[in-house]
TrEMBL record, chain A:
GO terms for molecular function: catalytic activity; iron-sulfur cluster binding; metal ion binding. Its cofactor is [4Fe-4S] cluster. Keywords: Iron, Iron-sulfur, Metal-binding, S-adenosyl-L-methionine. This is Putative DNA modification/repair radical SAM protein. Pfam families: HHH_3 (PF12836), Radical_SAM (PF04055). Transmembrane segments: none annotated. InterPro entries: Aldolase_TIM, DNA_rSAM_put, Endo/Exo/Phosphatase_dom_1, rSAM, rSAM_sf, RuvA_2-like.
Length: 418, 227
């Protein structure tokens, strides 16, 4: 008995791991029924795997049987892998018992498509319903939206899940068509739109009726695979930006393609996943969401790719030296946020602290800004007067010689063009 | 200013003993509560729970700074003690968050979920409500092995406890003697270890990042890190 469940878990956890979302944040489910669990608004990573990724949820597939044959997917029909399927009870039991031991924040349930979309979605809904209603489980549940599932099932799912997600898979329609001719971004947009509209509707209702139910309180997210198809960074981020804006997504995940197939359309097995590129895309994503940057400031037809050697914020500053140096004692918060080496936390502290007197460099360093970077772009109370504005090329080489990137030791399969 | 345990007499110092006086302490705390925001009251308390030798002087200087000035000076991050307390409180907060993440319960034969911990700072008072809300339907004990006290939730309320017989808990690691565990405990531990291994992507291996997130000093009590 225990051998069988162990084997199933091994197969179905392995098949689910390429979905990178692990977030357990953004929900607010309270344990009001003296049941098990609540959702911590900030999310909790209970451990990290040896690849450095967070483990927050029990991330599994209900089954890895699938009727589709998408070239980039490890569970594709034509792939020769072991297949397995959990029963509803098994998933419920694992979730409850892992949660009781504080291993996890909740469940991330996805599935290969067996028979058809509705049949699959119905099974997923049955599990979350059982957890919520029969077992009084108030932990976090992230549920996959199965493309093509009926609106009735999606509505029911939304009433029990905290977050729902549906993957774009490839950043552009053309890329998707190349590797998964049966799929299209339209199949993703439709349910995204339906759930988004429902979220808005339930929120409106809640304003009038306090006890109306929660509907996907932690919102929706999506994922795209990077490096399997030849999109530019600009195409990727413009696509992400459009989905953030059109569907009010909480997150877009970028997953560096890990070769799992001998398909000649994609990178060969054994080639290095594009980890640095993935990192730069996330940095750009953060600049868009928390630093007030518009995507076109960072990527545009003149600069369609992110720099490899420097991060996108520094790259933007070096391209726009006319804005610098700024005086941190008088500059607008928005502008302080744009200084390389100053993060959101430090920018807020600076704005608070300068009310009490002009800030000096030693105080700024104690506040925690990255001085070696920021010093080229700011003036403060004890700055020495300089006649010339800083030169982009000199600043870049000074920063690069002093810092050492954690990625320089990792072999890169990406070369710069120039 | 130091706690008694951390005091090292200097050659030219003159020692002045400060004896804790509950009434005076309450008066100062009540006064401080009027001067600083609730958020900063929390930070003050957290910095105290750090038990760091240097924290006492900063707390003293900070309190004086707050009393001597108009309301609102706690946000002057340019002030050395304000920044120091902000940083120490942040560290304590991080430890509190780690305990929310790294605590691993084991179900005992009598149905109590038990977790031994050794946090860097004295964070038990900061996690009590969190675990009470979360595990409302199971009895649990979280025991600070280093500070020799724990929390016990009996399905109604959380109480502070100390074990009379030290040998009851094994000091060296996570596992309780096998006879005292629930019959299914071992299986769930195994399943969790299986999951931990299978959700890893070997092609992305990054041990430096792994250790940065899960520092080695916590491994002793992590189910997934047991051999």
């Amino acid at each position: 008995m225990s051998d069988r469940i162990r084997k199933k878990l091994a197969i179905l956890a392995d098949a689910a791991k390429y979905d990178v979302s692990c977030s357990s944040s953004g929900s607010n489910r309270k344990n009001t029924n003296k049941g098990l669990g609540d959702s911590s608004a900030s999310g909790i990573c209970h451990t990290y795997t040896e690849d450095g990724r967070c483990v927050s949820l029990l991330k599994i597939l209900l089954t890895n049987h699938c009727i589709y044959d998408c070239a980039f997917c490890v569970s594709r029909k034509s792939n020769d892998v072991q297949r397995a399927a959990f029963t509803v009870e098994e998933v419920v039991d694992l979730t409850m018992n892992f949660y009781r031991r504080n291993y996890i924040e909740g469940l991330f349930l996805s599935s290969g498509i067996f028979k058809n979309a509705d049949f699959t979605m119905e099974r997923l809904v049955r599990i979350v319903k059982k957890l919520r209603l029969e077992h009084k489980f108030n932990g976090y549940i992230h549920l996959k939206t199965i493309p093509g599932a009926s609106q009735e099932l999606l509505t029911e799912a939304g009433l029990y899940a905290d977050r729902m997600s549906i993957n774009l898979e490839m950043p552009t329609e053309a890329g998707l068509k190349l590797l998964a001719p049966d799929k299209s971004h339209e199949d993703v947009k439709k349910p995204l739109d339906f759930i988004q509209n429902s979220i808005v509707r339930y929120k409106e209702e809640k304003k009038i009726l306090r006890h109306s139910p929660k509907f996907v309180p932690a919102g929706q997210s999506t994922q795209m695979v990077i490096g399997a198809t030849p999109e530019t960074d600009m195409e990727i981020m413009y696509s992400a930006d459009a989905y953030y804006k059109n569907y009010d997504l909480k997150r877009v995940y970028y997953s560096g393609y890990i070769p799992i197939s001998y398909d000649s359309r994609m990178p060969i097995i054994g080639s290095q996943p594009p980890l640095l590129r993935e990192n730069r895309l996330y940095q750009t994503d953060w600049l868009m969401r928390f630093y007030g940057f518009d995507v076109s400031e960072i990527l545009n037809p003149k600069n369609p790719h992110l720099d490899i050697d420097i991060d996108p914020k520094l790259a933007w500053a070096l391209r726009n030296m006319e804005y610098f140096p700024i005086d941190v004692n008088t500059a607008d918060y928005k502008m302080i946020l744009r200084v390389p080496g100053i993060g959101v936390g430090s920018a807020k502290k600076i704005v608070e602290a300068r009310k009490f007197g002009k800030l000096r460099s030693d105080q700024l360093q104690r506040i925690g800004i990255s001085w070696n970077r920021a010093k080229h772009f700011i003036r403060c109370a004890d700055s020495i007067f300089q006649l010339n504005s800083p030169d982009a090329f000199k600043v870049k080489s000074s920063i690069l010689t002093k810092g050492n990137s954690k990625y320089l030791k990792i072999p890169q399969n990406q070369l710069t063009l120039f | 200013m130091f706690s008694d345990a951390n005091y090292q007499p200097g050659v030219l110092d003159e020692k002045h003993d400060v004896i804790t006086d509950e009434t005076k302490a309450k008066r100062v705390w009540a006064g401080l509560k009027k001067k600083i925001s609730p958020d900063w009251q929390q930070r003050f308390y957290k910095a105290y729970l750090s038990e760091l030798p240097e924290s006492f002087q900063h707390l003293f200087d900070f309190a004086r700074y707050a009393f001597d000035n108009p309301d609102g000076v706690e946000t002057n991050y340019g002030h050395a003690s304000v920044m120091a307390i902000s940083k120490i409180a942040h560290s304590v907060d991080r430890e509190r968050h780690r305990m929310k993440a790294f605590i691993r319960f084991q179900e005992t034969a009598d149905g109590i979920f038990y977790a031994p911990i050794e946090p860097d700072y004295n964070v038990l008072p900061l996690i009590s409500v969190f675990f009470k809300n979360r595990y409302a339907d199971q009895q649990w004990i979280i025991y600070d092995v280093k500070r020799k006290y724990g929390l016990f939730y009996d399905l109604e309320k959380v109480e502070e406890i100390t074990f009379d017989i030290v040998s009851e808990i094994q000091q060296s690691g996570i596992s309780l003697p096998s006879g005292t565990l629930h019959q299914k405990e071992e299986l769930y531990g195994l399943l969790w270890n299986d999951y931990f291994k299978n959700t890893n992507i070997p092609a992305r291996k990054n041990m430096k990042l792994h250790i940065q997130h899960v520092p080695k000093r916590y491994w002793k009590y992590l189910t997934e890190k047991q051999p």
